Task: structure prediction
Amino acid sequence: MASIALQDVSKNYGKVAALADVTLQVDDGELMVLLGPSGAGKSTLLRLIAGLESPSAGEVFIGDQMVNDVAPKDRNLAIVFQSYALYPHLSVGENLAFGLRMHKAPRAEIEQRVRRIAGMLDLDQHLGRRPSALTGGEQQRVALGRALVRDPVAYLFDEPLANLDAQLRNEMRLELVKLHRSLGRTMVYATHDQVAAMTLGERICMMRKGRVEQVGMPLELYRNPVNVFVAGALAHPAMNLVPCHVMTADGTKREDGALFIETGHVRLRVPTPYTPAYRTYNAQEAIFGLRPEDVHAEPSDPGWQAIDVEVVALETRGAETVLIAAIPGLAGFDFAARLGRHYRAPIGSMQRLYLDLAEMHLFDPRTTMAVPRDI
Ligand SMILES: Nc1ncnc2c1ncn2[C@@H]1O[C@H](COP(=O)(O)OP(=O)(O)OP(=O)(O)O)[C@@H](O)[C@H]1O
Ligand SMILES: [Mg+2]
Result:
């Protein structure tokens, strides 16, 4: 078992900076999810940890050891690649056993581990088949199994569930969580799937364009995103993010009194506890953020503030209805609300909604950074 660390790591491919100044600590036994859109640098980061690429700058550590000059085979990591290749001439069972045979594990132990992993991945009945006789999803499970059957210091997963259908993906995700609990091994898991990241990760490392945007526990990122990018990820529908103007009641630069934000024709009062923090933006433009679950159809709490919006669309999701609305006077921005499953309203009608502004966020439009609420 071992921790993994990257210190000021950059990786350039010619002019392309695949990773820029990444510093990241994955604790011993931790499951860290690398989350980010295509091109974020997730695979590059995993390949650097595995030693399949060497950094252009910076240092990679496994445990206490700086491993920049350690060959991949000597790092004792198990990897499931984004584009895996099985040995086509070997059976599923032999594919699973391959790594253990290479390391000259005892025969009985190999057999026992292969059986256990095959059972877990629902591959028992396929052990004698060649990979060409399997579906894409089954092949992906074999690729996963090949890594899981081993006993490395850490596992690296690169989109290991991408080829599975939704149900199997959910099952496998749960299996991986259980496996992580029972093995207690360090795992680094790359994905662009926000649901996977939220449910799997003990911590999430949110990446974009080769940079780390925020690292933290899933709920930490969800509740306190450091910038607009992180705020807009992690959920669907994502946090509502609309331009606003911060102002006092009479539009002056007063240093006290109530603070408001105006978006379109709607004026909202900033909750008192946040006014000291947000007052620095008085008389300036900002970005107002509110999650769709903090928008309600009924005024259950006297603190919620009413706004009237135009119904653009309703998405019936079974467990809930998502209302997509337009704020009067604010063109080009959808405002989503997660409402009860029985919510109905005619498209084009005006409806009253209630905002829980205790959950609001404010972002600086120039830097896109969140304005800290606690001074
Ligand atoms: N061998 C390479 N040569 C040149 N550029 C590369 C190479 N490998 C990666 N890149 C570039 O580095 C950047 C990061 O790529 P990377 O594959 O790490 O992203 P990713 O987050 O894994 O994306 P995806 O979700 O699509 O797998 C991209 O701009 C990519 O084009
Ligand atoms: Mg990738």
Remarks:
- The longest strand covers residues 305-316.
- Residues 42-43, 82, 158 surround magnesium ion (ligand 2) (CB under 6 Å).
- Residues 240-363 form a domain with the OB fold (Dihydrolipoamide Acetyltransferase, E2P) fold (CATH 2.40.50.140).
- The chain has two domains: 4-232, 240-363.
